[in-house]
Predict the 3D structure of the following.
Amino acid sequence: MTSPKAYSPEVLLNIYRTALKIRSVDSGVRGLIRSGNLMLAMHPPTGQEIIAACMGECLEQTDYLVTIYRGLHDQIAKGMPVKKIVAEYHGRVTGACKGKGGPMHITHRESGVMVTTGVVGSGMPIATGLGWASQLKGDNRVTVTCFGDGATNIGAFHEAMNLAAVWKLPVVFLCQNNQYAECTTYEDATASKTIAERALAYGENMVGVSVDGNDPESMFNAMRKAVDRARAGKGPTLLEAKTFRLSGHYFGDPSPYIPKEQMAEAFANDPIVKVREQVINSGIATADELDAIVTQFEKEFEEAVEFAKNSPFPELSEVTTDMYGVA
Amino acid sequence: MTSPKAYSPEVLLNIYRTALKIRSVDSGVRGLIRSGNLMLAMHPPTGQEIIAACMGECLEQTDYLVTIYRGLHDQIAKGMPVKKIVAEYHGRVTGACKGKGGPMHITHRESGVMVTTGVVGSGMPIATGLGWASQLKGDNRVTVTCFGDGATNIGAFHEAMNLAAVWKLPVVFLCQNNQYAECTTYEDATASKTIAERALAYGENMVGVSVDGNDPESMFNAMRKAVDRARAGKGPTLLEAKTFRLSGHYFGDPSPYIPKEQMAEAFANDPIVKVREQVINSGIATADELDAIVTQFEKEFEEAVEFAKNSPFPELSEVTTDMYGVA
Amino acid sequence: MSDPKMITFTQAYTQALDEAMAADPTVVLLGEDIGDKEGGGVFKVTAGLTQKYGAERVRTTPISEQAIIGAAIGASLAGMRPVAEIMFMNFITVAMDQVVNHAAKLRFMSGGQTPVPITIRTRTGAGTGNGGQHSDMLEAWFAHVPGMKVVIPSSPADAVGLLRACIEDDDPCLFIEDGVTRIVKGEAPPANHKIPLGKAHVEREGSDVTVISYGRPMQDIRKIAAALAEEGISVEVIDLRTISPLDTDTIVNSVKKTGRAVVAHEAVRSFGVGAEVVARIQEFAFDSLKSPVLRVASKDATVPFARTLELEFLYKGSDIEAAIRKTLEEK
Amino acid sequence: MSDPKMITFTQAYTQALDEAMAADPTVVLLGEDIGDKEGGGVFKVTAGLTQKYGAERVRTTPISEQAIIGAAIGASLAGMRPVAEIMFMNFITVAMDQVVNHAAKLRFMSGGQTPVPITIRTRTGAGTGNGGQHSDMLEAWFAHVPGMKVVIPSSPADAVGLLRACIEDDDPCLFIEDGVTRIVKGEAPPANHKIPLGKAHVEREGSDVTVISYGRPMQDIRKIAAALAEEGISVEVIDLRTISPLDTDTIVNSVKKTGRAVVAHEAVRSFGVGAEVVARIQEFAFDSLKSPVLRVASKDATVPFARTLELEFLYKGSDIEAAIRKTLEEK
Ligand SMILES: Cc1ncc(C[n+]2csc(CCOP(=O)(O)OP(=O)(O)O)c2C)c(N)n1
Ligand SMILES: Cc1ncc(C[n+]2csc(CCOP(=O)(O)OP(=O)(O)O)c2C)c(N)n1
Ligand SMILES: [Mg+2]
Ligand SMILES: [Mg+2]
């Protein structure tokens, strides 16, 4: 166990550093698309960085992550090398999946990034299986499965939650409630007031918690508790992290369905700006130090892009490898 | 509206009469199978008659029912002619579905029996659609969808409940909790303490209620309330009716997985016996009158069997009718 | 005469829905993000319809594909004609039970009491860099389910006519839209254009070889047939339009005439629609066949992400041309 | 020598699971009602295994097919070899997303990092009066999904060997059991019997006509071939064993020799496995074919309930014999 137990200024700085890293890659990729240097269907995690950073801070490298198409932040927070992601986005053989998966299907075993799915809700049943394996082996690993608010309306969510509760699996269900499912508001699709209260349908083994996901302290503490609970064999948690998607559903989506004021307010509360103040106020780092970190991440991103661009495309024969192949 | 508003001895007698009818058909069919006169995969509703009878008592003919393989009681309570069911069981052209559906797939439009499904959970989404149509047309109909305790663990349940709540549909979700899903106990498969509390995951539009389904008064009152609520456009109800399956999962299942004492206790509480006392005590009917009713139903069943046996089998060409057909 | 009006596939779908809703008040739409409040659908097919027909008839749903198809079925049993949108075809996998065990079977199992007049619109196709979970062509599955009708248009005008026919049909219809060519244009059809289901369309008559296809490859085939005509090779081109029920007669009669055939589709080769077409041709036109019927299809693989691989995966127009030439080589 | 031991199909499945669990501690089972507490599964295949290997390795699940397959996938990513039971094949429709979009694709999409060594056992077949929602043969769907292996045994001994091979295989395997013949007996195989996947089995050599099939119809075909041999008709019989990947070579080489072929399966005819077999034969053995390859299959319909209709729906042994004779008539 190397992840920190209690919240502290050091933890805050770690979280913020990870959030900055995520933002730099996110902005960088969006920049590449905008400038026509990369063709990509991308679902930006903009505004959801603190959640992922807190998650990463509470996990071990050996823990498992199952995430979704909007997963860049989760993957980085779980420790994936940026260049593996960027090269994958470029469809190069040096990418995490040799260019075969793409942004919606990132896997990186070494970092514990086991599945990224493009199908809403489908990661959750798979996460129960990873948790089941840990329970069988007694290997003390925790599985986190990330998904959105909209995903809690699909059947797979329900089946996975029930199974995890009945089998008391070491799984954290991390719902990143960004208030929209594509273009549909939370209220128009989701009958419950909060996501956390959906835990009530799964008895005592399942705990439901709702926090401000953009606040590092609340988010870290809730995540810490959920992870500890899972690791101690006490059962799963449904952790609702409230946030906002500071972007369209996909990059390029003009989001006409989001009221202008709501968007403006959300931008005014951009966690990257807000938490910067917290970090500086805590005295753990100065503005200059933070700027230096940003510069460093920007440089790393540029290097990752160079790495990707200089990497070869996969051999065409890769189309029929990594499967049994039907000749 | 012709169904009675308030519980009364007359209502009790109606309920009991329907329950007796169900039991007589149920016993009759089991007798035919036992004696080798009918080959059938049958899922007896034995012990669950009062629930269905109360449901029937609260519905209009024009209301819709969606039920499951264990649906004989529901179909009779909804008003299906017994001979249509018995002829279908015999695979005759005079059966409800011309012998093409069979016991797990009974439809009878005139009685509002819209779907009987053999797939666990699948009736619920269809019921939301029937409810949606009623809402669109303003035709004041209510849809009841029946299912078991085990069915509340499948994804379709969750999706249908959420949709019904968000759209405030006139649907009653009637869970007949007989404590077993095939051979698996409630506790081994279902994380929540009660089924009714699962309603908590669907906000204010959805109400959850749990009652003793074998007690006519509680069951009638709960059903009445749920149906009235739906008809008034106030939204769906998840109504859990607690009961016990006085039979194996299918006829012929020796149920080694049910503890002997549990089975013995359940038989001691057979609602057909218990409610008989209630009826007699209420003064609405004498023992002799009830016996006469039973005799009458037994006769009707025999007539239905005769009708079925004297009916022709469907033409072989029926294999490719009632579908577009691919010649 | 002025140039005919040109419309995109997307406009064609919208036109069909619009006309159907105008003509029949029982036509209702449901699906994720389809309402005007949500911007009229991710692909904008339903944009403007809420304004025209009201939010009651254009219902945005939660992300609940089982409930979407189930609700469509239920509403159809009560006399509506719902058109359900499944955003990408790969997501219909979560609703297969409703489609296969219920929509396709309820009419049969009820002995004819309850037809299920629903239309399921969905979208798919490789070539947009979406990778393995957003690109599959799964029409062969549904064609293997008796009771389902499966329809794929190859031009905007056909899209209008076939979608209208699906909506009016009493059987459950799966209507598959191509994601790659959605802004390709074609001539607009007249108002209330309807094309009968179950009939293949001989688009071009020819005498040397029959090419049978549907959907996106038709756009390649039209060009190839025209180019080969210049060389004196006469290609008969058949657009299936309806995959199931399959119009055996039109196919077989053509091959009896030409003696040679190529079947092309985007779906992966093995166990695809092409196999069924070949099987029927060889059974019913055996004596006329001068060379083996060839299939052109995408490779038996998961759709890869990298552009280079995605192109390598996909069937190619040049494969179709090569197959045509190959059938002509023998004898 | 004493008579060989005879076992039923059901006993064969149990034997394979038992041997696999004994040989490899990562083999775990999950499914509805499968534990001894629940009586060892509705079909008793897993009876006794809890007692032998513990309730940790034999897990009864809620009725949650998506979670069952998802949990199997997840556990397999973490190094287990789960065997999931889907009680009836029609219920796999609710889990198609997990099977198709995930199990079949994760190895490919991860660039080889995460194979999914799961086995899905399921049971189906018409003939038991269960009607439309418990009887479908859907193997063609899965064969059309690159990445999936699809296996159907035709004897208890093959059942043991093929199921063992599925469990040891690194790809997701769908293993389909026939519900009608589950108590039919055959010779027991020796301990630890394994049969390689992807290879068809020439069960009987012959020179006049090749009959290709798998699963239940093989039991008809064996008798028919023996009876025809008495008449001097020499039938070569191929049992596919693995439907996908399909062993083209064995099929094609046989038909090159015999010049005639019949393909038989229980699934409905159109867009079924038979079509693919025909398509490959006519492509690769065209010049050898003396008559059209004929297909025998069940009718394109929902499986009806009434016994009379169910029999009318089903393929028949006599259809197979008639098809064989018909292929021999021509030329
Ligand atoms: C089963 C399924 N249905 C529909 C989609 C299309 N889709 C992709 S993302 C999305 C919205 C998901 O919303 P949410 O769960 O809140 O996650 P977010 O995108 O907001 O992070 C939808 C409907 C899908 N990928 N899978
Ligand atoms: C999707 C699906 N999975 C499994 C089955 C097999 N099966 C039939 S009935 C049943 C148990 C259902 O239990 P419950 O919902 O409690 O209803 P009950 O039979 O007790 O009335 C199961 C697992 C099925 N029919 N459908
Ligand atoms: Mg969201
Ligand atoms: Mg039950």
About this structure: The two ends of chain C are 47 Å apart (CA to CA). Chain C touches chain B through 46 residues (CB under 8 Å). The mean pLDDT of chain C is 97. The pocket of magnesium ion (ligand 4) is lined by residues B 148-150, 178, 180-181 (CB under 6 Å).
